[in-house]
Amino acid sequence: MTPRIAIMIPIFRHSTLANEAISCALSLSGGPEQVVIAVDDGCPNAETRAVLDGWSLLEPERFHRIHQANRGLSGARNSGIQLALELYPDLDAIYLLDADNRLDDHALALFGQLLRDHPEADWFYPNFDMFGLNSAAHNGSEFSLAQLAESNICEAGSLIRRRVLDAGIRFDETMRSGYEDWEFWLSAANAGFRGMPVRQSFFRYRKRPESMLSGSHGKDDALRAEIRRRHGWLYDGDTISRLAGQDRPWFVICETGEAPRYAHAYDPDAPTPVSEEQVVTQMTAAALRPAQVQRPLAYVFVRPGVLEHLAQCRLSASVFWHLHTNAQDSDFAFARIVTDPRGQRGITASAYPEPPARKKGQRKPSKREVARAWDVYEDRMAELRRAVEEEADILLIRSEVMDKVTEPLPDVKTARGRLDRHLATGRINEIIVATEGDDARSGQAPLDALRALKTRILDAREIQVSMDLSPWRAAPAVSGPGNHEWILSNQTLGGLPLPIARRDGAMHIGFVAPIFQFGGVEKCVVALAAALKRQGVHCHLFVYGDAAMTGTGWLTEPFESIHHICDPVLRSWDGPQYMGTNMASEPEEQFLNNMIAALTGMDAVIITGSAATYYGLTALRAKGILTLSWEHLFETDDYGRVYGTPYLAVAYEGALDMILTCSRRLADWLHGQGVPREKLLALPNGTGFPMSNDEIADALAARRGRKPGDPLRVGFLGRLDAQKGADRFLSVAAKCRELPIEFSITGSAVLGADGLHVPDWITRYPAAFGIEELKEAFARLDVLLMPSRDEGLPLTIMEAQRVGVIPVATDVGAVSEGIVDGETGFLLENTDVEGQMAALLARLAQEPRLRARISSNAAGPAGKWDQNAALLLRAITPMIRREAFKAAG
Amino acid sequence: MKDLKTVARPAMVLIVDDAIAGKLRLEGLEVLGLSGLRSRLVRLESDASGQSLALPDLSLLGACLSDEGMAALEADAGYLALLNAQDLPLRALGEAPDHADIAAAAWGLMVDRLEKTRRDAAMERRAAAELRRTHMQVQDDHAELETWIWDQLAPKYSVVRHWPATADTVALGEAGGALLQPLPAPFRGFGAVDVQIAEDAPAGTLTLTLLRPGGAPFEGATTSATVCQGDNGPFRLTLPRAGSGQPEDAVLSLTFTPEEAGKTLPLQLAPVTPFPDVSAVQDGVALGRPLAITVYRTLPRMPAPPLHDTRRPVPADGTTYLLRPAQLEDPQLLPYFRRNMPPRFRDYPDAPKVELRRNEDNVLVQPSIARPVVAMLPGVPVEGLRQISAIIQLARHDTMPVAFAIGAAPAGLIRSARKALARVGDWVHLLPGEWGHAWYEAEEPMEGHVDLFLATAMPNMPFNTNAEALFHGFRMTGRAKPQADTAE
Known about the structure:
The complex is a heterodimer of chains A (889) and B (488).
Chain A: E1 5-11, H1 17-26, E2 34-41, H2 46-58, E3 63-68, H3 72-87, E4 93-96, E5 102-103, H4 107-117, E6 123-125, E7 128-132, E8 135-137, H5 145-150, E9 159-161, H6 162-166, H7 180-190, E10 195-197, E11 203-207, H8 215-218, H9 220-230, H10 232-235, H11 239-247, E12 251-255, E13 261-265, E14 272-274, H12 276-288, E15 298-302, H13 306-313, H14 316-327, E16 332-339, E17 344-350, H15 367-390, E18 394-398, H16 399-406, H17 412-416, H18 418-425, E19 428-435, H19 446-465, H20 484-491, E20 508-513, H21 520-534, E21 538-545, E22 549-550, H22 553-556, E23 559-566, E24 577-578, E25 581-582, H23 589-597, E26 604-607, H24 617-622, E27 626-631, E28 635-636, E29 642-643, H25 645-651, E30 658-661, H26 664-672, E31 680-682, H27 693-704, E32 712-717, H28 726-735, E33 741-746, E34 763-765, H29 771-779, E35 783-786, H30 795-802, E36 806-810, E37 826-828, H31 833-846, H32 848-857, H33 864-876, H34 883-888
Parallel strand pairs in A: 1-2, 1-4, 2-3, 6-10, 7-11, 12-15, 16-19, 20-21, 20-26, 21-23, 26-27, 27-30, 30-31, 32-33, 32-35, 33-34, 35-36, 36-37
Antiparallel strand pairs in A: 4-9, 5-11, 6-9, 7-8, 12-13, 13-14, 15-18, 16-18, 17-19, 17-22, 24-25, 28-29
Chain B: E1 13-16, H1 18-21, E2 30-33, H2 34-40, E3 42-43, E4 53-56, E5 60-65, H3 67-74, H4 77-85, E6 90-92, H5 99-151, E7 157-162, E8 169-172, E9 179-182, E10 190-197, E11 204-211, E12 222-227, E13 233-238, E14 251-258, E15 265-268, E16 281-282, E17 285-286, E18 293-298, E19 319-323, E20 332-333, H6 343-346, E21 354-357, E22 362-365, E23 373-394, E24 402-410, H7 417-420, E25 428-430, E26 435-457, E27 469-478
Parallel strand pairs in B: 1-2, 1-5, 5-6
Antiparallel strand pairs in B: 3-4, 7-18, 8-15, 9-14, 9-16, 10-13, 10-18, 11-12, 11-14, 16-17, 19-27, 20-23, 21-22, 22-27, 23-26, 23-27, 24-25, 24-26
């Protein structure tokens, strides 16, 4: 006798019903040979042993039993599995049959067929065919790991291939309160095994009213938390969203050219072309069988060329995210691409106009006021409807809404007019995307393309509507394709992840900044991201602020995607104070969820001053995402007290995995505030903008070409404000007016520069933002004066040193980490700065050899950011939960 | 443990001290020392409970141990836990028991065991007797219930799925291959299926067999019907008895044996669908669309009742005229057991609505899920009435299937729904949104005034929401005195 299938029956208290299970298991025929193994799990009923004795006598060859002290269902199953594998090395599979359930007579024949015909499947799970409380529910869609993550779609009465057990997958014996089978399937899935639903009935689950009282439902929350804790490979990050994206397209994209072109996409930058017929067929199938057929999350109609333009701006994922997020509570979301004359980029979602309503505590408005309010509201609605018809460049409609407008019941004729009625009464959300590009429109209006597709769908459904094609079983109570948005919301922190593809197993790091203009911190972010990119990391920029961001090419070049959320709450500092520094105002729950969910695709998130993001740190860490803050400098208030984001880093230290600093000095300060040394990593600043080696050599050669008698060129570079010491610079210039020195200022007043008068003999240059402008700014200087009152470690020092400009700076902040006094520049005490600087300039003007020595000491390429990137990666790589990479591929 | 497969199982094991185990023989028992038994146990892997031993394929009679043996057992927690879990009968025999002591104790254990077994057997016999009694009672109750339902003249079948025909066909009979069509309903209760013959058929035999997608075919689930030369349109295949057992998936297997070799039977196909699991399959090739079929279900295990055929000839010598609802008096809802129904229940929400909608020229007879509903149109003058047909409609899509029937009786003769149901014709089932015809044929020509009965029912349906069952117009055939001005 060489049985191929072992049927495992654990018994605890079901002493009598076990006879039915054993009897039906032994009476199976017509397939591979089977053996039955009953496990008496320390059943307190003596009848169990009598029953098993009896079966042992009746079927000594095909029936085994094992008695053990009670170990719970998992332990009983494991004992049976162990015995089966040891006794019968030639087994192909094991079937788990609980003592109160039954198998149909043809089950064995079906098992043989399944094992033979589906070598790719590792376990086979049944429909939910119940007896007792009679009901039948089907087993949903094709096997989906995303759905298995949300609920147990695989009934324990499954046929499991030998190879799953040979891989050491067993039931967890510590899960004695339930969900042990769910945990088993997840462990198997983690090992690379996959299930397959069996559409034919073969298994009968005894459903008694008592089943509804079973304890595991009452402990659902705790058990789910335990499952999540054990299976970070699946629940961490945005893995479930990505897996769901493998089950179905997130977006069906229709490009509205002369002939519409369709594509499926998770990441809008990586679409897969499909035919219109495929789109219509899938949609029809999903509408007819919502519990079995996967449908896309949303349909996106886009004018030709728009996707390419957004891809160039690296904004595609962000625009789709905004449209999709805004469509959650509306019927349509559309985007207009506009050109920003300042070359800025930004994505602004306008709130849907609400009909006028009297607020609590508000006085009763007059009739005229009411009428005016309604006029304003209706004008806005009319404007929105006009804009969606004529000016939309992208239109997104969620599948749920698409189903409504294409629902053929009660008759197809009525359905044809439904889209326009929906437009007239539905909610429309508008997104404005400002870019530096051209906003000329071409192709068919997205709404017209939607109308055309709707007609095709209705034509297809007209045929299908007369047929009832639903399965005869009811939809299952577990999650299925129809609950997809709900699953996503459950598993992605209540919002939507940014739809970006993971093209390889490399690390993804997100930088979160409240401003992205041309400041020092931004340049540090860009420089570190560029260095990380050179080391194979995918970097993404998240600008969570209240204003547009710069679109300057070299600043955005290192980032694979840029996500922009613009809202005043993101720059509101109305939270409580911590050690004298105001915390950010706490965003509303849904807004915060949206912000944080967009970050779930990252392995690590580096926050640079975005204090609102701190409110989501715990949620991010619960998703296995590494949280870091990057601190740069303090600010000084009008009373001379320092404050700033380093205090917030201390405030949130417990929720941060690591704190990066721009200088060793700041790291020491944070350590002094109680941050453990292991959490601190100093990444001393390097240069803020890139220059090639050739460019540096050319700049140095030009400098060497100057004659010793040429006047000394001394300049101020940066914001004309008190912090940077612009007033001190003007005093120094005045004191040195008689010396052979040419003074210049490159920059513009930003903060606190009211009343600053720049005399005509000091040359003024506008602020330099582009790389070429910056190179020119340094090329026209021999000495850079930095009489700052407050600093971190300014990038300008390293940028100046690189091209042989001598930095002369006050010894504030971490400036001393950038200048070796008398070697690579000059450091001056922060008292009588004007006098010290004037004396030094006089000396430099008279000593060309000193100038030449200092100038050449630190000149040339530094590569500091590459060292920083390597340091960072060395620190965070062991902390990142790499399993998440594996699951989502 | 390997020998478990091949060695005959010992009848029963007696556990004794190790020192005695090898020396004692007791007929019919295997005598094992504590160590001997231990060596037969399975050591469990991955055991979180710490109880790492299990007992495979052994029946323990009990243990007869000396004080020393008891101490040895108690010192081994895992061993003790396993034996305790078996509720092992234990005899403590003092310091140094001899063989006779052990044999006597073993005898006692055996007697206890026998007594328990006898008691268990008696209980099983009692349980079986009770089960037989209950089973018989259930059978009687069921039979009575069936008779009762039958007597109520309620419809005993329903249409569970209808897939419309298109102009596309599949030829059945070529090379004798079977055409497989997944059944869009469970086998349990499946009674009959209509296929659509596309054009004049060749003579032959059409055979239906119900198969499982995997596993042996269903027992006794096969039927054949003769196809006559020239047959076309709906063609019904009825199982001798409807399917029974648990609800199961099934496949219809159709074969056609023509009388004249080489002929094939053209069957119409339904529209293309995106679902492979409803697609017909011929010679292993999926057609991408199902057959055009109508599937009927009835009571499991029962012979299918006569299913109404809408193609009924009008009497050749009759005169037919159209009678519009708007020309008739308001309908009355015939009471159901009215005498026994407390007045407060007469307006119970389930009480269905019956009304003449003059503007729409139809009669609404709202069905109930609880029982057939009969409306009466009183006092219609007729002459030699032999046949009535009505145009029926289930007006909305968002409801459940409804059965319609019409009937007639001499005016004033019948005043209750129950009696009226004996006077109605065959039940016709409409799916939501469908139109159809209901027929009634009088056994003898009727004269004078008659009451028309309009009956609706929703057998086995969960709700009657939106069930707008409408009767539109009546064609009266006979020598009737035309009351209507529109004659055909």
